[in-house]
Amino acid sequence: MSQVYEALRKAQGQAEDPLSASANGRLARPEPALQEVPVDEVDLQFARRIALSSDPHGLGADRFRLLRMRLRELAGAGKLKTLLVTSPLPQEGKSTVAMNLATVLAEHGRRNVLLVDADLHHSSVAHDLGLPPRPGLAECIETGADPLSAVRRLQPLAWYVLQSGTTQGNPADLFHAEALSPLLARLSLHFDWILLDGPPVIPLTDAISLSRLVDAALLVARVGQTPREALDKSISLIGRGSVLGIVLNGVEGLNRLYSYNYGRYYSRNGSGKQAGDTNRKD
Ligand SMILES: Nc1ncnc2c1ncn2[C@@H]1O[C@H](COP(=O)(O)OP(=O)(O)O)[C@@H](O)[C@H]1O
Ligand SMILES: [Mg+2]
User: Fold this and answer.
1) 119 C-alpha vs ligand 2 centroid, how far in Å?
2) How much distance in Å is there from the Cα of 120 to the middle of ligand 2?
3) Which end of the chain has fewer CB atoms within 10 angstroms, the N or the C?
């Protein structure tokens, strides 16, 4: 049994259903500023795409625990807090992966995790979770409002969301460093992880702009759908050094509903080596 698998087993031993109470029956209290954040109750019928919720003991949920383990290692080793989740093209599973990742990283509320719906062209997080449309990222950028005032805590998912909001202008014009850097810096004060559910890389410049403002990007590729050339082009547009890994969404046979795979595809130093398939049978 490999060392990696041994470490994975230990991590799994500690992992719990994110929607149940923690081992000592108490959930961690959010930090003071977050205690004031309004709470939205999510009907879990709307959270069916979240494997950690719909099938916490399935292999899809297990893959996200593996991804969490890798991210924790990297976070422990250096600065890793803001992550862009993107993919080459639309409909490849960015929002699905981002919501699953938020759930697994939140650890029942022991970690403060914020998911920002940063796809202003095709935002979906609020709709997917059955939440009403509200002002969010777009309005905060346009008006300079405190982004924390637009954040909601989601129960029982135990993570926070900043919805996309709406803009009358071109979304691409909003994603400039002068506006977004201070906004992310302000949010960073309160959260352990900030996930940006971004637009796709190829048809738009937004994802490339966002990738310059975060610590790293995760690329989602959908098996049988994402062309290899589109993946390569996305990596080169974002920059190999900024692509932390690739989540393969929809791996057949791993899970009946949702399957995820993670490979440390390109290293942070840009060596460009493929780490290989984590869809082991051992
Ligand atoms: N592994 C999967 N298996 C089946 N359907 C999936 C899977 N991943 C995503 N979907 C579905 O595909 C559609 C697009 O997913 P979404 O996460 O919104 O993609 P994106 O954010 O990249 O546009 C949604 O209807 C979602 O439920
Ligand atoms: Mg999406």
Assistant:
1) 6
2) 9
3) C
